[in-house]
Design brief:
Keywords (chain A): Coiled coil, Protein transport, Transport
Radius of gyration of chain B: 31 Å
Structural class of chain A: mainly alpha
Strand content of chain A: 5-15%
Low-confidence stretches of chain A: 1-73, 148-152
Organism (chain A): Oncorhynchus kisutch (Coho salmon)
Shape of chain A: elongated
Order of helices and strands of chain B: HHEEEHHHHHHHHHH
Number of strands of chain B: 3
Distance between the termini of chain A: 61 Å
Number of helices of chain B: 12
Low-confidence stretches of chain B: 1-38
Order of helices and strands of chain A: HHHEEEHHHHHHHHH
GO molecular function, one term (chain A): phosphatidylinositol binding
Pfam family, one (chain A): PX
Strand content of chain B: 5-15%
Strand order of the largest sheet of chain B: 1-2-3
Number of strands of chain A: 3
Oligomer: heterodimer
Helix content of chain B: 55-70%
Mean pLDDT of chain A: 64
Largest interface: A-B, 48 and 48 residues
Strand order of the largest sheet of chain A: 1-2-3
Radius of gyration of chain A: 29 Å
Structural class of chain B: mainly alpha
Largest sheet of chain B: 3 strands, antiparallel
Number of helices of chain A: 12
Distance between the termini of chain B: 49 Å
Protein name (chain A): Sorting nexin 7
Shape of chain B: elongated
Mean pLDDT of chain B: 76
Chain lengths: ~450, ~425
Amino acid sequence: MSRTIDAVVSPTQTNTIPADISGQMLDLDEDDDLEVFSKDLTLADGNMFNASMPTSPGSMVNQCKFEEDEESDSKDIFITVDNPESHVTAIETFITYRVLTKTTRSEFDNSEYEVRRRYQDFLWLKGKLEDAHSTLIVHPLPEKFVVKGMVERFNGDFIETRRKALHKFLNRVADHPILSCSEDFKVFLSAQAWELTTYKKQGPGFLSRMGETVRAVANSVRGVKNRPEEFTAIQEYVEDFSNKIGSLDKVTQRIVKEQKEYLEELKEYGPTYTLWSGSEEELAEQLKGVAGCIERCCKETEEQVGHLSDTLVPVLHEYVLCAETLKAVLRRRDNIQAEFEAKNEALATKKVDRDAESSDLGFVWGSLLGKNPEEARHQRQERLDGEIEELKEEIDKLEDRVEWANNALKGDWGRWQRSMRGDLKSAFLSTAEKNVDYYEKKR
Amino acid sequence: MMADSGPKEVAVIGNTELTSAELDNNIINTMVEIEKGTSLLRKMEISVAEAEKRTGKNTVNMQEIYTVYLIETRPVDALTEGITPDSLWRRYSEFELLRNYLLVTYPFVVVAPLPEKRAEIVWHKLSADNMDPDFVERRRVGLENFLHRVASHPVLCNDNIFYIFLTEDKDWKEMVYETGFQAKADSRLKAVNAAFRVKNPDGRFTELKHYSDELQTVLSQLLRVRARVADRLYGVYKVHGNYGRVFSEWSAIEKEMGDGLQSAGHHMDAYAASVDDILEEEEHYADQLKEYLFYTDALRAVCRKHELTQFELEMVALDLACKKQQKEELVTGTVRTFSLKGMTSKLFGQETAEQREAKLQVLEQQLKEGEEAVKEKNTETDEFVKTAWVDIERFKDQKDRDLKEALISYAVMQISMCKKGIQVWTNAKECFNKM
């Protein structure tokens, strides 16, 4: 199996890869490979992603025009988001980020692209992806701005957090076998600023989007009658999950707050020992030692708080957003199903109509126009049947897609979260360990 | 918290001046005696075993609830191990009375402090409630500590009133009052007055006073901040308990992650719960510091007494100088300073020779008495300084030792807290890895 990327670290696995893999998307043994590779380039995101797609419909894979060679390879596209810069125009000030892409995919003309994008561009991309694949799960974007207000937009920390989230977003899209094939995605990565603006203007206008929204609302009002069991289960799960994640988010923020207050007090604690050592002779040494240790504790606690804020809080937050996304996806799925059901009802009525021998306006009309009644009826039947068949197909396809996407993401979640948590815990541990060392020095 | 029962010497209370040679001798003698077990603590096991609530009528004939403490004593002897100890009940006010008696009777001794009457400098878990069981328990320990300190003090342990406090139930109060110690107590006003007007206090005492002021300030600040830190730490730990709850709830809806989450949740709960023990232990450390905080009062009392005796000495000496001058005037007939006598004699004529002679005689007598008084006061002051300084040295050693130990055990405590933390998080990490 040839690899199209040079900088490969030799895999740690020992199993041989079966020769007939070309038809299949991925192999579980690739995990080690992916992991090692990704770590090198600090794009740790899609590690386990591929492993969790057991039953991917082969047809969908082919849609993405993957070359056979690339199937067994690890990532063939690398994206980084960095270097935020502030731009001032007459109307507004905004931040752009540099998006760097390196790829070997054939659909891209070059192998490297460097463009600058602003948050609105990301929003646009997300919107397009969701429109095109309304039942797939698109990773959430960071929020528009922090609650505190306009000023916060240009705060250093906020920008950094957003940058990281944007980076993650693009990489997730890149990892997704369907989404990454999107034309919009490609344009986003490669077009120059003015090209992008032009491109954006194409596409369904405002009115057609309105129409879609109206339909969606109408469908949701109508409701779903026979939602399949599994989706109900997923719905419930998502509800609960969203609750839990929300709680965890709150708890973590509370912990950060408490830690900060603890730190405040601790900062005052150390100096009192120093003060005391001034009055003592014999005990001065020990007291100074204690003061020193407390100061080191302060530093460690500060680090810990920082780490929590940087790592756990954003992740939890992301998943809160994910939960929201999931809910939206489910809703859309429901809408589709509602449409399906509506159409089915229409189908039923039409069938009835068709089978009815009774005179009806269309029939009469047809005869007036000189058509053969039988023919007219048949034509209509065919037309109706055709419509119905189309609809059915579409809906089935959609449902399949939903299910697949859902499972994929869930598996991905679980493991990713785990590794994130693992990181967090080791941070805690290292903090505690350092504490221990320093305290031992007290003796 | 048993104080070391190897004191430097037993101060002899009396009017004899001790030369340094004699002091050394005393040390040797008392060392020998101690080996025989004169320190009360060696002879007796003392413990404050229990606390109980009682109701009764107080001095204004109102019902009140108060706590009494059971004092148990038993001679330390291999043969009497199995014998049940003697016991009696005492309430806090009786301890106070005992201490006041000791303060007055042995003003040169740095008398150990009693535990707090009311709960101050607490952190949020403990309300300032005298009836709170934790507070009562800590007070019980404090009272026991007090008794041990007194019983192992080379001077105080021999006091009869103390002994009776421990052993006789009835009439102890009357006995204390009979000693008339209250009359001996120096009025506060006198002491403050002396503190201002004394001219030549021993430099060491002045230093000591400053030190005890500093120590008091530092310790009270330290204890306050520590209480706030403990409060915050408590908060941090307890919020982690919320993690435990949410994790459990969450694990119910997860399949692969369920087990991992569940166990992680348990660890979080354990972590949150562990803070109670940790802070309980820290209270012990705080109590040790508090004892020394309260000791500063005793230190200052000794300094005050010194200032008082020094002042009295100075007064007496001044008085003597005055009288000498008067005599001189009388003898030489010159009036160098304004005096009523001088004026009246000017106005009403000179005195007769006999009158003068009579006055001289009186003055001579007064002079003799004065000189005696000065000598007495001198020895009193010197004596006080010596004995007090001995006890202060003893106290300093005790303080250094105790505080060193307290700091070390505090450090050990913190280490074990960290170790527990490590354990919990390591376990949690494993659980997370299994998810």
